[in-house]
């Protein structure tokens, strides 16, 4: 697991006793508006690993999670939203690839 907004810094993913998943070492960025948030998402997407397949010229070869924390100006957490993009959703048989990793 790597932080795409922090030079691919290695992260630890752990589950606590309540069954909640925590990612330790993940860098947080404060944004003031939707444009700043979209720029961070685009920056992370540019860091993802992609490879051409028959089905898609830029098939993602990695999963990605964008975690958005809503905080008050004093830092109090009001909620979190996690957006998940799974690697290459095309079926292996549809890619016509002979590479096992791409399937």
List keywords for this structure.
103 residues; 8 strands; globular; 2 helices; single chain; two-stranded antiparallel ribbon; alpha+beta
Overall average residue pLDDT: 78
Shape: globular
Using DSSP, what is the number of strands? 8
Estimated radius of gyration:
16 Å
Give the biggest sheet: 2 strands, antiparallel
Describe this structure in words.
The protein has two helices and eight strands; from the N terminus they run ββββαββββα. It has 103 residues and is of the alpha+beta class. A hairpin with a 7-residue loop joins strand 5 and strand 6. The longest helix has 13 residues, at 34-46. The radius of gyration is 16 Å and the shape is globular.
Brief description of this entry?
The chain has helices at 34-46, 92-95, and strands spanning 2-3, 9-10, 12-15, 21-24, 50-51, 59-60, 64-71, 77-85.
What's the layout of helices and strands?
Elements: E1 2-3, E2 9-10, E3 12-15, E4 21-24, H1 34-46, E5 50-51, E6 59-60, E7 64-71, E8 77-85, H2 92-95
Antiparallel strand pairs: 1-2, 3-4, 5-6, 7-8
């Amino acid at each position: 697991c790597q932080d795409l907004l922090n030079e691919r810094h290695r992260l630890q993913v752990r589950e606590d006793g309540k069954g909640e998943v925590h990612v330790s070492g993940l860098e947080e960025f404060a944004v003031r508006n939707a444009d700043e948030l979209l720029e961070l998402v685009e920056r992370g997407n540019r860091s993802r690993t992609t490879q051409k397949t028959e089905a898609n010229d830029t098939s993602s070869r990695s999963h990605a999670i964008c975690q958005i924390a809503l905080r008050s100006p004093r830092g109090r957490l009001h909620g979190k939203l996690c957006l998940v993009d799974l690697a290459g959703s095309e079926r292996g048989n549809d890619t016509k690839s002979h590479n096992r990793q791409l399937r």
